[in-house]
Every structure is written in C-alpha cells, then in structure tokens.
Amino acid sequence: MEATARAPGKIILSGEHAVVHGSTAIAASINLYTQVNLRIFDDHENGDRLLTLQLKDVELDFSWPVGRIREALPELSTPSSSSPTACSPQFMKLIAALVEEQDIPEANAGLAAGVSAFLWLYASILGCKPATVIVTSDLPFGAGLGSSAAFCVALSAALLALSDAVSLDLNHQGWLTFSETDLELVNRWAFEGEKIIHGKPSGIDNTVSTFGNMITFKLGNLSCIKPTLPLRMLITNTRVGRNTKALVAGVSERTLRHPDAMASVFSAVDSISRELSVIIQSPAPDDLAITEKEAKLEELMEMNQGLLQCMGVGHASIETVLQTTLKYKLTSKLTGAGGGGCVLTLLPTLLATSVVDKVIADLESCGFQCLIAGIGGKGVEIRFNGSP
Ligand SMILES: Nc1ncnc2c1ncn2[C@@H]1O[C@H](COP(=O)(O)OP(=O)(O)O)[C@@H](O)[C@H]1O
Ligand SMILES: C[C@@](O)(CCOP(=O)(O)O)CC(=O)O
Ligand SMILES: [Mg+2]
C-alpha cells in the first residue's frame, strides 16, 4: 500500500506570536510544499521489518526495527487513528531515546524534534507496521514558512490515508482532497505533531496548511478570507536560522515578567489583524481604491512589526531587510517566529517590475534569498500509488 501527501507552507500576514496568546492572526498558504510518500509493506515484502524515514533534502536516513519500537512504546501497538492524542512527557522520553539511537549529526540537531514528531504520529496512527517514509520539501527549515506544520500535516495525511480512520477513493487518479471531516482529523493529528516541535503552538500553521486559502485564526477557530486585491508579497529569507520553540518560549517568559504591558501589545495586534481582515475583503472597484487599501495595509504591517519588536523577536538581519526595502518606499515585516528567518514585503499592484528587480538585487547582494510565492492556494492533498 502506498500514498503520497503534499501540504503547503504558509506566510503570516499579521499576528504571529500574539496568536499563541489568544489574538487574531491572518495567514495564507503558499505554493511551496512538503511531500511525504508512505509505503507500508506486507509481511512477506520487508524481511527486516524496518520502519525507515528518509529525509531527502538533508540526505539523512533513519531506521528502526519495528520490534524495537514495539518494545519501547508497547502501549502504541494498538493504534488510535481516529482519536488524536497528545504525546505525554513520559512518552516523549521514550521517543527521545529512540531518536538518540540514530546519532543525528550535530549540524542537523534541530531535526530531532521532527523525527520525534514522526515517531509519535506514525506509532499512534498506524501502530508498529514496517514501512518506508520518504520526505521531500520545497520549504527552508526553521525560516518562518511553516516547514514544521507542513511536515506534520503531510505526514498525518499520508498515515491517515492508509489507516481505517478516513474514507478515500483509492482508485482516484491524481491529487485528491479529503472530506471536511477527514481534514479536521488530519489537522488535529498534525497539531499534536506540531506541539512536539513548537512546544506551545497556536495551531495556525497546521490549520492553514491543512485547509489552504487565506484565513483569520483566533483561539483555534478559523474563518476563510476572500481577498479583493491581488496581495503580492516578496518573501526574503535572511538565512539566519532560528528555532520557533525557543522564540515562542521567550515571548511567554517576557509575558510572565510584564503581564500588563504584554496584554496591551497582544490586544493591539488583535486590533491590527481584525482591521487588516476588513481591508483585505472590502470592495476595491478601481486602481485608486486598491492603492488606498495597500497604503493602509502597509501602515498596519509597520505597526505589527513594531509590536513584534516589543515581543523581543527582532533580529539585525530583519532590520537590514526593513531598511533596504524602505529605500524603495516599500514596507516589510517579519513573518513566522522571527529572530531571523523570513521577511514579507508588500509589492503594491502598480509597482514597476524594474523596481521589484532592483529591490531583489539589492537584498540578494546582502546575502539574502528572495522569492515571490503564489498565496492562498489549496491545502493538503493525497495521491495513491500509480496515479499520475
Ligand atoms: N521535512 C522535514 N522533515 C523532518 N523534520 C522537519 C521537516 N520540516 C520541518 N521539520 C522540523 O521542524 C523544525 C523547523 O520548525 P520551526 O522551528 O517551527 O520552523 P518553521 O516551521 O518556520 O520552518 C525542523 O528543525 C525539524 O525538526
Ligand atoms: C510564532 C508562531 O505564531 C508562528 C510560528 O511559525 P514558524 O514555525 O516560524 O513558521 C507560533 C504559533 O503560532 O504556533
Ligand atoms: Mg514551525
């Protein structure tokens, strides 16, 4: 049995971090994907009875005899695919021991969290069957584009597709979407994986990766947004690596030290996201209306960036992007957890292509990497063996 799932990354237009503390945020899927191919073996096919995880982008393979997993996690021998469960601290220790056995190279130490999430999702959804899981991704890891969520969503989708918990047409040719109920299940499992990687995620990244589109998200509830203007964003990867879990924990610590001040910061972010959502969806009959709306969006992005600075998630490389784009009268804000990672720059509709080319050249001369991704496309999809 074989299935391949793909799940998109995302950008956060407003509200990162504050969304963890209950504020509204706005996110959109992007057309960069993580793809998970899952092949479960029949008893006679895999003599060694191994569970293998191949991470193609970093050229790393991990393997465990399924008997070793069953011995370490005996309670998970009977999977519970239709009821997502959190990985308890006790299970986390047992999983950490299985991951440690793999000797992940020091340079890829951050992957341990992803491999732990893999083991939890695999054993919880499918039990201890021998299988090979191959992962490829267009997304940079740890750069704010939601690679952790895309990984958890694609993995949950592939595992559930070959479990008894969802109903799909196995003969369908090409990419297939899940039913709304099955998407909910994929999303809930992905959230459990994201918890292992992020510590305390809001759930916005896995939700937008699962359902796609552009969404507002607050306290676990999503609502779809239909933009009335093109919303072109330049994404600049500062290439400064960082770890979402540590940054989220840092904001929580600051919140404990200054609860009243931080409550005001989070409330201001909530207002910004709500205003942004109204502007994005209000009618824009002509170029003048679009230009006026873009100016308001820029102002709100600038305000959000200032508040992210208040939360302590800025970085010198982000400042360089802000200053560089400002030379071209363009507004930018960090996206995702900050501390480096990616920065968004709004490219107004009437901006000349020559200016876009110049700003990209300027940013690239600083050693950054630029891309313009399609935003607001489909969420997770699945494809079965043999279909095109
Ligand atoms: N394709 C993948 N395979 C394994 N682990 C992954 C993959 N993509 C992401 N991860 C995990 O997610 C971590 C990065 O997540 P995070 O710090 O939240 O940044 P972001 O989600 O912005 O990329 C990686 O260090 C790794 O543990
Ligand atoms: C900072 C946060 O709002 C988004 C993190 O996104 P990313 O992992 O940096 O892509 C955390 C969350 O909402 O779970
Ligand atoms: Mg992440």
Automatic annotation (TrEMBL):
Reaction(s) catalysed by this chain's protein = (R)-mevalonate + ATP = (R)-5-phosphomevalonate + ADP + H(+)
Presence of the UniProt keyword Electron transport in the record: no
- Domain (GHMP kinase N-terminal): residue spans on this chain: 123-212
Record's protein name: Mevalonate kinase
The Gene Ontology CC terms held by the record are: cytosol
Which top-level group of life is the source organism from? Eukaryota
Q: Annotated pathway, please?
A: Isoprenoid biosynthesis; isopentenyl diphosphate biosynthesis via mevalonate pathway; isopentenyl diphosphate from (R)-mevalonate: step 1/3
Q: Which GO terms describe its molecular function?
A: ATP binding; metal ion binding; mevalonate kinase activity
SUPFAM superfamilies named in the record: GHMP Kinase, C-terminal domain (SSF55060), Ribosomal protein S5 domain 2-like (SSF54211)
The record's similarity note reads: Belongs to the GHMP kinase family. Mevalonate kinase subfamily.
Q: What class of enzyme is it?
A: transferase
**InterPro entries given in the database record:** GHMP_kinase_C_dom, GHMP_kinase_C_sf, GHMP_kinase_N_dom, GHMP_knse_ATP-bd_CS, Mev_gal_kin, Ribosomal_Su5_D2-typ_SF, Ribsml_uS5_D2-typ_fold_subgr
Enzyme Commission designation: 2.7.1.36
Any Pfam family from its record, for instance, is GHMP_kinases_C
Does the record carry Magnesium as a key word?
yes
